[in-house]
Design goal:
This protein is an alpha+beta fold and about 350 residues long. It is about 30% helix and about 30% strand. It has twelve helices and 20 strands. Strands 1, 2, 6, 7, 12, 15, 16, 17, 18 and 19 form a ten-stranded mixed beta sheet that branches. Helix 10 runs antiparallel to helix 11. The chain starts with a strand and ends with a helix.
């Protein structure tokens, strides 16, 4: 087993002959037990697919695999950990104020430094300059000074410079060998509104049972709901896989490249190892399987794998040292600028 230490981290950060990736395989269980029904996300499919449905793929051998939490969704769950102690000190806390004393962190902005919200503040020019520098020179230090998690979870400045940086940390949860279920329900109003002369018996009979009728949508008549999504039963594993892409990490350049790469590696490892809230959605609360310990591996350029002793404590300690060496920018608060937003909204 390989110990995660400073020398190994240096191989990951700055040695082109070092590992190409660090990977985690983690088995999860529903809190109700391994045979419990869980609810994956539904996605909006075309009308020909009868509307929203689970993302279930069938492999050549007939195995059905379901997306339980997508790469993007996992990133959105992992990134806000940097708002919490002790992780908050690792990155500049950039806050945007708007409305009546409301605020939002850049860590909550879906497109990160490339988000329209950033272009609607005084940070717009600084963000544009940081992206432009990266495009021209490959130096990502300016992005790291402003919004380092954009390097960890990826960013695409698709509405402006077109600068695009791949995710260094990628996580996804899938369930293997599944059957999907349906469920039905019946809504019964607490009183007979027709008898109370809110509407006539004729109107009641006409609209009852029709989920699209005005009275049904307002909850005044009986409405059945049949054949709805009823979750899935998992016969195989619910598996979370995490990849830390060291090739993408080592492509981050600049005069301060080695320190930058150590810093971003530290953030990536914190994101990958920090405990996550397993409440993904209603009907889907997952925890690690205590009988199937998570396993980190370092994958070599030739495909060889070595088991890696890596945990949240070691990742945090390394990240704190790397952040101190690189230098974390000061936190700041900037107001939303409606004029900038309006100007940006009219750009082609």
């Amino acid at each position: 087993m390989t110990e995660f230490d400073t020398a190994f981290a240096e191989r990951c950060s700055n040695d082109r002959a070092g590992p190409v990736a660090l990977t985690l395989r983690q088995t999860l269980l529903p809190v109700e037990g391994g045979d419990a029904v869980i609810f994956p996300p539904t996605y909006a499919f075309p009308p020909s697919h009868n509307g929203p449905r689970y993302n279930i793929d069938t492999l050549a051998d007939g195995t059905r695999v379901t997306t339980v939490d997508s790469v993007g969704s996992q990133a959105n769950r992992m990134e806000p950990v940097f708002e919490e102690e002790p992780y908050a000190a690792l990155v500049p806390q950039v806050t945007i104020t708007y409305g009546n004393d409301r605020s939002i962190s850049i860590l909550q902005a879906g497109h990160r430094l490339g988000d329209a919200l950033i272009r609607s503040t005084a940070l717009a020019e600084e963000a544009n300059a940081a992206f432009t520098t990266f495009l021209d020179t490959g130096d990502a230090a300016a992005i790291a000074r402003l919004a380092p998690t954009s390097l960890v979870f990826g960013v695409w400045d698709s509405r402006d410079t077109q600068a695009k940086l791949p995710r260094i940390v990628q996580s996804v949860i899938r369930a293997w060998d599944v059957d999907d279920l349906t469920r039905s329900a019946q809504y019964n109003p607490p009183v007979d509104y027709a008898a109370l002369e809110v509407f006539s018996d004729t109107e009641k009979q006409k609209q009852e049972g029709n989920t699209k009728s005005p009275l049904a949508q307002r909850g005044f008549v009986h409405v059945p709901a049949t054949g709805e999504h009823g979750g899935i039963v998992v016969h195989g594993e619910i598996r979370r896989t995490v990849t830390v892409n060291l090739v993408a990490l080592r492509r981050l350049g600049g005069n301060d490249g080695p320190a930058l790469r150590r810093y971003v590696l530290g953030l990536a490892l914190v994101a990958a190892t920090a405990p996550l809230d397993g409440f993904l959605r209603q009907g889907c609360l997952l925890t690690p399987d205590p009988d199937a310990l998570a396993s980190w591996s370092a994958v070599g350029r030739d495909g060889t794998r070595e088991t890696l002793a890596l945990d949240a404590g070691a990742a945090l300690a390394f990240a704190q040292d790397a952040a101190a060496a690189f230098g974390v920018s000061e936190s700041r608060t900037v107001p939303f600028d409606k004029a900038l937003a309006k100007a940006d909204a009219t750009k082609k």
